[in-house]
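Hey all, quick one. A colleague (J.T.) asked me to put the magnesium ion job into the tracker so the inputs and the C-alpha cells live in one place instead of scattered across chat threads. No bug as far as I know, just bookkeeping. Sequence used:
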Amino acid sequence: MPKLAKNCIAGLALILVLVLSFPIAVLAQSEQAITGTLRVEINEERTPVAGVDISVVQGGEEVGVETTAEDGTFAVTVPGDGAYSVTLNTDSLPEGVTLQADATETLEVRVESGNNKAVIYRLVSGDQGETSAFSDQAGKVARLVSNGVRFGLIMAMCSIGLSLIFGTTQLVNFAHGELVTFGAVMALVLDNGTIPFLVAAALALALAAGFGAANDLVIWRPLRKRGTGLISMMVISIGLSILIRFVILWQVGGDRQAYSKYRIQEGIEIGPLSLTPRDLIAMAISIVVLVAVAYMINKTKFGKAMRAVADNRDLAESSGINVQQVILYVWVLGGLLAGLGGILLGLDQQVRWNMGFDLLLLIFAAVTLGGLGTAYGALVGSLVVGIFIELSTLVVAPELKSVGALMILIIILLVRPQGILGRAERVG
Amino acid sequence: MDILDIIGSALKAGLRPETAYISLAAIGLNIHFGYTGLLNFGQAGFMAVGAYGLAIPVFAFEASLWVGLACGITASVIFALLLGYPTLRLRADYLAIVTIAAAEIFRFIVRATGLREITGGSNGINGFSSGFYEANPYTSSVGFELGFLDFNYTAREAWVMTVGWGIVLTGIAFTYFAINSPWGRVLKSVREDEDAVRSLGKNAYSFKMQSLVIGGVFGAIGGMILALAQGSVQPSPVDLGPTRTFLAYAALIIGGTGKLWGPVAGSFIFISLLSFTDTFIRSAQAEGWIDESFIAPNEVGIARFVILGIALMLLMTFRPQGIFGSKREMALDV
Amino acid sequence: MSRSEAPAEIESKPGATKPDPILKVSGLVRQFGGLKAVDVEHLEIERNKITALIGPNGAGKTTFFNLITGFDQPNAGEWTYNGHPMKALGPHQMAKQGMVRTFQLTKSLSKLTVIENMKLGAANQVGESLGKALLPFTWKKQEAEIERRADALLDRFNMSHMRSEFAASLSGGQRKLLEMARALMAEPEIVMLDEPMAGVNPALTQELLGHVKELREEGRTIVFVEHDMDVVRDISDWVVVMAQGQIIAEGTHAEIGANQEVIDAYLGRHHDEEMSSDKAQESGTESFSQSEPDENSGLEKESNDE
Ligand SMILES: Nc1ncnc2c1ncn2[C@@H]1O[C@H](COP(=O)(O)OP(=O)(O)O)[C@@H](O)[C@H]1O
Ligand SMILES: [Mg+2]
C-alpha cells in the first residue's frame, strides 16, 4: 500500500521536524536537583527574591548550598533518589521579607524516580500588616478584573484559531494547546542570548505559523482526503497532542523556565492597579492583533472566503473558492495566534511543557461559551472566562480557580447549548 | 541484552494488575463508545471517583474496605448522572469536552489544600489497603517458568491480579449478556442513529444514561483496583489525568471497539508493548547504544507517552476497526 | 374503491374540519431566523384515511413532520392526537402513543442487520430493561414472537433475502423500504411517511402502494409526503397542499388538480412579499420556479441520504 507508506513517512517527517526543532541537549537535563523559586507578594505582584541561601543536607552531611538567582530560582544538585532536608537561611532574606508565620525553614523531602523535586517556601513581605491604600474590596476587584482581562486577551488569541478551525473543518482539535506551547517553547529555545528577545519571538512566531501549516498539510489534509470521520479525527488530534507534548517534555524538560529578559519588572501604579510594562505591552499587542484579526475576517477577501467555507463548504467550493487553501491559511493563522498567545503567556507565567494543554480546557470553556466556530464568540468567551476565573478567587482558593470556569462551561451547555453568540443547530 | 528476556518480561507485564485495571476502564469505554457511541473522554475521572470513593472512607472515617467499595460505586453512579444530565442531549463533541472537564474538576478538587484532612490534598491517600492485603490467601510468590517466559509474581501482585482479573472476567460476562439482549440492541441502535431509535418509541436519552452509568461503574472499579495495586491514590495527571483515559482508549481501539474481548486483548497488547519499549530502551542504554544526551535515564518514562500518541494516531487513521478487525467492518466504518 | 372518495361533508378549503380527526393542529409556527418554515393555521387529519401532503421543495413538509412528531420545537402552536395535547411530549413518547414516522433522509442502522433493524421496531419489549436483559429466559419467548412478525413483514416487503445483511449494504430504495417496515413493527395507529417512494424502483412502488392501502384496511391512518402525482392520485383519500409553510389548499385529488393557487405555487408565481429575495434563495424556495407539477420532480431531489 504505497499510500499508507507515504502517509507513514509524512507522519515520521513531522515527528522528525518536531524533534529537530530543538537544539538537542541544550536544555535537556540529566541531573537531579532540588529546585524552587522564591517569590514574595508585593502589591499583588509575585516578585522574585534573590540572594537567599538554601542548603541541602542528607544524613547529617551537607550535599550543597545555592543562592537564589535574580529570578528567585535555585537548584541544588543532589546525587540521586533519597530523603533530603532543605533549609532556608532566614538571615539571608532581604529586609522586610520573612517566612510565612506557620512555615518552617527546614523541609524534609524525598527525591524520587530520577525526577527533580520542587520545594516551596511561602514568603511574606513585612509591610503586609499595613493596610495599603487599595486593599479594600473595590480595589481588589479592580485588580482581579484587570488580571482577568489580561489573561482573557491572551486566551482569546489561543481560542480564535481553535474556533476558526472548527468553523471551517468541524474538527475539535485537542492538539490546539500544543500550538500554544510550541510558540512559547520555540521563543525560549531561540532566546539563548545571541539574538534579542524580540527577534527570537518573531522567529518563533514564524515557526509557529509554519507548524500550523505543517499540521494541516501533513495530517489533516490527507485525512480529509481519506474521508476520515470527525470522531476519528478528534481521537487522532488527541494522539497528536500527547505526542507533541511529550516530545516537548523530552526536549526541554519538566521545569518552568523564564525568558532571559522581562523577568522582573517594577509595577506601574494606575489607580488601584499595578501593572508592569510587560503586562501593558502584552495587552496592547493582544488588542492590536485581535483588532487586526477582526478586520481580516470582516473586510478582506480571505476573511470572506473563510466565512463562506464555514457557512457551507460545498457551496463555497462550487462558487470557485479554493477550500483547501482557505483551510490551510486558517491553520497558519491559528498557529500564529496560538504561538503569540503562548509567548505572551510564557512572559506572564513562564514556559512549561504542558502549559498549552493546561490551558486547553479553559480554551474549550471560552469557545463553547462564545459558540463554537465564531471568532467573536471566542473573544467574548475568553474575556468572560478570564475575568470569571480571577473573580472567583474572591470566594474560592486560588488553586481552584479554573474549576469555576469549567463549571460554567457545563452550566452554559445546560442552558444554551449553542453558546452565547452561536446559532442554533439545524435539526432533522 | 537478550531480546527474549525483554519479550518475556513484556508478556509478564501484560498480565500485571495494570493491565487488569486498564481492561476494566476499557470495558467501560467499550460500553460507552463501542456500543452506544458516547464519547466519554473522562474515564479517568470515573477511575478517580472510584479510587477516592474507596480510599476516603477508610482514610478519613476509618470505615471498612467494604464501605469504601460501596461508596466508590455509589459515587461513580452519581458522577455519571451529574455528567449525563446536561450533556447527553448534546452533540458528541460536547460530551467529550464536558467529560474531560468534569474529570479534571474532580481531580483539582481532591487535590485542594483545603481538603487535606479528607483527600490528602496533593499527596493523595496511602495506607487504606491493609485490609485488602490482610485477606491475601497467597503467602509466597506465585507462578511458573517456561523457557524464557517467567510468570512469577509476588504474593501481593498475585492477590491483586486474582481479584482484578476475576472482575474483568465478570465484566466480560456482563457485557456479553447485556449486549446480546434487546437492551443491547437499543444501545447499538443509539450508536447508529438516535433519531431512528426515538421515532420507534424508545427513550434514547434514558438508554444513553444507563450506558454512561454502567460504563462509568466499570471505570470506577478499575480505579479501585488501581488504588489497591498501588496502595495509594494520587491526584497526579499520569495516574488519574486525561492521559490515563486515552491509554484506555488506545487499548480499546487496538483490541477493537464494539468487540466483546476488544478491551482485554487490547490492554494486554498495549501494556506489553509499552513495557517492551521501556525495557528495550533501558537495556539499550545499558549497552551504550543510546547516548544519555539523547535519552537521559529519567526520560525513558516519556517513551510510553510518545508511543501512546503515535499509536492513537496510526490506529485511528489506518485501523479504526482494531488490529483484528476485518476488511468488511472497515468498509462499514465510514 | 369507495373509500378513496372523499366524504361529501368535508369542505375543500384549507383548515377544513373533519368528522373524526385523529390529529388536530392549530397555530403551528416554526421560524428559522427570519424564515417562517411552517405557519399552519389549522389542519385536521381524518382517522383511517390516507392523506397526502404535497408541496414544492422547501414548502415546510419535513419541518411540519418534525414538529408534530416532537423532533423539533415550534415557536407557537398546539396540536392534539386523539384529543390529547402533544406539545409537551418528547418524540419517543409520541411514538409510544402510536404516532410513528419515517424520515426523508433514511435513518437505517448501518451496522445492524436488516432483521435486527426490524426487531428494534417492536414496542414494549421486556428485554429492553436492563434488569431483565441479563435474564434471557424472561424475554426469549417474546423475542421469538417479534422475530416471526419481523420475518412476515420482510416477506411482505420482498426483503426476506436481505434478512442477515448489514443495513449499510442496502441501496437507497431498499433502505426506504426497511425503514417503513421497521416503523410498522411498532404497530402504529398513525404512520407518517416522508417521501417513502423516493428512490424505490417503479416496479416495487406499485406493490408498496398496495401495502399502504392494506394499512388503511387494517384501520391505520397514513399521512405521506409525495411528489409523484400519479401516486397521490392512486392512493390518497385527501390531499393537503403546502407552500411556503402554509396550507394553501385541501381537497380530493381532482379538486386539487383544478386549483389555480396550487398550480401557481408549483409554478412559482405565488410569492410571499415578506420574504427578501436572498432569504428565499437560501431556503430553497428558488427551486419552486424550476419544479413543475411533473410526476418525477421528486425523484432526483434530495436523495442524498448516504
Ligand atoms: N434546521 C433548519 N435550520 C434552518 N432552516 C431550515 C431548517 N430546517 C429546514 N429549514 C428551512 O425550512 C424550509 C422548509 O424545509 P423543509 O421542511 O425541509 O421542506 P420540504 O420538506 O417541504 O422540502 C426550507 O426553506 C429549509 O431551508
Ligand atoms: Mg422534505
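Adding what we noticed when we looked at it: The interface with chain C takes residues 427-428 of chain A (CB under 8 Å). The radius of gyration of chain A is 23 Å.
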